[in-house]
Model the fold of this input.
Amino acid sequence: MPIKGTVTIKVQKGWIITVIEQDTVKLLRECNAGIKMGVQAIDELLPKAEEKGLREVLSKSKREHEKLGDQTHERLNDYHDEGKEPHPVAKGMSWMKTNMKMAMEQSDHVIADLITDGCNMGVKSLSRYLNQYAAADEESKDIAKKLIRMEEDLAVKMRDYL
Done:
């Protein structure tokens, strides 16, 4: 029985590299889509933030996400892959939730709550993808781990505004 986090590999010419490349590309695609979702959420909520400190935290996080997104996109280009857009249903549900909550109460508390929920979903999804694509190369796993840390850090910073 395989140990969790290990990859069972058949030794055939070219097969090992194919598995590593497939998992690498799949992990990078998911990171890329997650970053796009995060940037879109921040773009939507940033203009509605009232407190200067919240605007600064969100602006800085957006820049960090964009920088990591560029790095992710560059890695995908190395594999001749264009990345992945966020799932339309996920985008639609996020948009609906955001607009419904903001229509009921437009405040920094609601913005912080929405960002926190998004960060928590991102951490959960990315952690699942790290396990699912265990054969991905280390550089791609590091990108996913960095994105997870960024999401965790942003959620912690949002606590001051809840």
Notes: Residues 5 and 66 are 29 Å apart (CA to CA).
